[in-house]
Amino acid sequence: MNTRKFTILHSNDMHGDFLAESQGADGTLIGGLALLSGYINQVRREEKNVIYAIAGDMLQGSVIDAEFKGISTVEIMNYLSPDVVTLGNHELDYGLPHLLFLEKMANFPIVNANLYIKKYYKRLMKPYLIKEVDGLKIMFIGIITESIMAYLKREGHIGTFITLEDAAKEIGRICDAYKNDDIDLTILLTHIGFESDKELAAMLKPEWGVDMIIGGHSHTLLDQPVLVNNILIAQANVGTDQIGRFDIVVDDETNRVIEWKWRLVPITSQAVQPDADLQKFIDSYKEVVDTKYNALLCRLAQPLTHPRREIETSLGNLFSDIFAESTNCDVALIGSGSIRLKEMGPIVTLRDMNQVFPYDEAFMRFTVTGEQLWRIFSYIMRAENRNGEGECYQVNRGVRAVYDESLRKLVQLEIKGQPVDLSARYTLGMTDFHYSSSQKNLAISHEELAAILPPRVAASSMHNVLEEYLRGHQNLTSQVEGRLVYR
Q1: pLDDT in tens, 216-225
Q2: Considering the entire predicted model, what is its pTM?
Q3: Residues 251-294 pLDDT 10s
Q4: DSSP bridge partners of 213
Q5: Where on the phi/psi map is residue 200: left (φ > 0), alpha (ψ -120 to 50), or beta?
Q6: Which member of 124, 142, 185, 440 has the lowest number of beta carbons within 10 Å of its beta carbon?
Q7: Can you say whether the dihedral through the CA atoms of 223, 9, 103, 80 is positive or negative?
Q8: How far is CA 394 from CA 295, 313, 401, in A?
Q9: pLDDT confidence of residue 166
């Protein structure tokens, strides 16, 4: 039997998480790219065959990334030197032309099989990478599906011809085309969410030879990978506090993984020496950002938290209240995923605000009926939307919605203490981003949102609204108070 041992390291949804954070009374540092690079370098020294892969969303989520529009991220990732990367939805946050610019900056391959440029019907990226390691050929295929494309509709030049079902066929076509190349290991790099990864694995034919799916998007924390249709599926949570590690043995004769061990490795200063050169490079960006963003905005009465995107949170309530008040909306929907950190305060600097809420875009206001509001809340509060992959929302004071889990339906919706009148009119606010995907994420079309009155830009910059409000209001407080109730 001719076998080879490989170590596959993998990250996903790093979101510009460059800097280590202190944890515990002893001041142990956790995460950050300098420590992560130190661990990757250590493994590369210790093991013969090492591959480092990233399953999407390197960009967006930190002040350093936003200030330099991803240029800082790609330059820093060049230091880490991943072997292969796939696209996530946030790689397109700065627009298609900028993504193509960043792709040219990257010293690492970026693969995606199913995004294409509409006018020319050509793939946006190279669909796969065949990497030869220790005499064995490993194929990586990048996949992002229609469910994620809803986030990208503002980029009119990009389309997809792949649904989740069609993704399996696309993978099959690529695998079949390279059967004669004697591919020893086939790995899908996906950014579609853990539940969708399991659905996709179940659709793949065994003769296509897919061995593993390394995924992202849902920020799933695993004890161990799952096995679906004899395909290993793994994900490494979110950020840089940890990294996934597979140690596998591949049989060259059968082209299958015959032994494997996986663990989620914590990245801490107790176990890892930081990459000093990379830390200096990161610090050069940090100094520029610190000069601009260390200004004090306000002091909160106490720290506010956002532990999970699927539930009402005190920090989510604060942001929703600010936008509802500032834009004069009866209902303000703030995407829970827009709030990127779990805590803010009591001291809040401009940096804190931008790190917690990095997405600076327009806030739109609509006039809708009570029936439309009822339909929206029925849709966003359903159980299948709270599986880690759906788009959940925070709502402002005066809104109370009750969803009955056993009946699987919305049973109560109040605005300012009064039951919603299905025939009455209400003002509804949301980000331009969520307006662009309203049908997918809110079950309401653009035509319906514009049926009564044309949409209005209530604020052209959400950051301007937040900054001005926080500067003008000291000792703010907020708490979870039963705005969204599940019973």
Answers
A1: 999 999 999 9
A2: 0.77
A3: 888 888 999 999 999 999 999 999 999 999 999 999 988 888 89
A4: 188, 233
A5: alpha
A6: 440
A7: positive
A8: 27, 8, 11
A9: 81
Tokens of 310: 């699927």
Per-residue pLDDT band for 367 (boundaries 50, 70, 90) equals very high
Are 415 and 332 contacting, i.e. CB atoms less than 8 angstroms apart? no
Average pLDDT over every residue of 25-37: 89
pLDDT per position as a tens digit, 147-194: 555 555 555 666 665 678 888 988 998 999 887 778 999 999 999 999
Q: What are phi and psi of 334, to 5 degrees?
A: -115, 120
pLDDT attached to residue 161: 58
Residue 429: pLDDT over 70: yes
Mean confidence (pLDDT) of the chain: 92
Query: What residues form DSSP beta bridges with 110?
Result: 85
Where in 432-468 does DSSP place strands (E)?
456-459
Asked which of 6-20, 59-73, 370-384 is least confident by mean pLDDT, the reply is 59-73
DSSP 361-382: --EEEEEEEHHHHHHHHHHHTS
The answer to whether the Cα torsion of 102, 108, 114, 117 is positive or negative is positive
How far apart, in whole angstroms, are the C-alpha atoms of residue 453 and residue 151?
25
CA distance 302 to 477: 7
Which residues, at least 6 apart from 180, have a Cβ–Cβ distance to it below 8 Å? none
Peptide bond into 206 cis (omega under 30): no
Helices (H), 155-230: 164-177, 194-203
The answer to whether 39 and 265 are in contact (CB under 8 A) is yes
Contacts of 135 (CB under 8 A, 6+ apart): 4, 252
Alpha carbons within 13 angstroms on the beta-carbon side of residue 403 total 21
